Amino acid sequence: MGAHQPTTCTKVSALAQTTGCSRSNSDPLPRDTACRAVRWPPVKSEPSDQDQTARSALHAVSRNSRVGLLQVEGGGWCNTVRSCRDRATTRRGSTRYMSRFKVFSGILSDDPLMNPDFYNWNRVKLRYCDGGSFAGDSEFQTLNKTIYLRGQKIWTAIINDLLNKGLNHAAKVLLSGCSAGGLAVFHHCDQLAQLLPEAKSVKCLSDAGFFVDLTDISGSNTIRPFFGSLVSLQGIAKFLNKKCVASYGDPLTCFFPQYAIRYISSPFFILNPAYDMYQFTHCFVPPSSDPSGQWSKCKLNQDECSAAQIEVLQGLRNQTLKALEPFNLSTGGTFINSCLAHCQSELQDSWFAPDSPRLGNKTIAEAVGDWYFERKIVSETDCPYPCDSTCRNLPSKNQVWVALQSS
Asked: Is Secreted found in the keyword set (predicted)?
């Protein structure tokens, strides 16, 4: 198994010179935002000129046109004029700088030994380049350039392109995503389901996208003002769930999954570590809360954490589990392990392998499959860190970050 080469998907045409991401050209519309790739079978008519809006997706095609898995790429956010301007000239801000090839592993693998339930589905990776979890629509001037933040339009362009390629014929669909892509799944799950009224099953999986409205170790909240500036700059408020906003009276609150999840009607699966590495290092113990650097070694290597620090770290787990309490398990599922990890569905070692993390003697792949195909109810929550010995087989934190940065 270890020697198996994961699927590599390729685009079949050159990248466009203009993209619909955070970019600095004169066209505000996402005209080239998802790749012109292998068609979803069957296609009953040739694509129209409008299908040129498709350059931000990589496709792996199955002979079965009735099943489709869409996986939303992660990659952080930009919440200031400067950070979005800088992002616009990188692969996180424009398809112009993205690679033509991507390795499909984990939930995207085409090997039944590595991805038993979804290996033969049509699999599409949605490339991420707007810095706002595909949720905004705004523009601003900076240094004599216009930066367009068109996440919502990019999402719409990609999905419309896939519908024209045959997604509209699918009977079973799974929308998944990691990190910022996992957050996007919370905000687009019901939108996708509404576009597929004939599908028998449209379900959603968020991997490491359950970002908690979190109090850090100093008693402050770092993530809320960060998301606040993100929502404001990128014009996200008008696209958030209207019932949620009406209930809380605050769009920012509804950007957090723990509040938005109450208003999602589609079946949903939350895959998240109780000690998510991103939230641990950026939100629970952000640099502002640790000016003396007492947590530096612990954040770089969990084996360096003292007993006192591990005790403090339980606060992250407690807040995460508290935030999950409103989640409806009648149609939903959870896999909340105690690994210090971030994004476990994309990496083969954590998705499905002999030494993958387990809860209830199930790998993540088995748990997700049981939930999607309704073989069993899946509601798994791990014991407190560091009790789970199966986590020890995961790659080191540095290896995980390298893998995520290359995605």
From this structure: yes
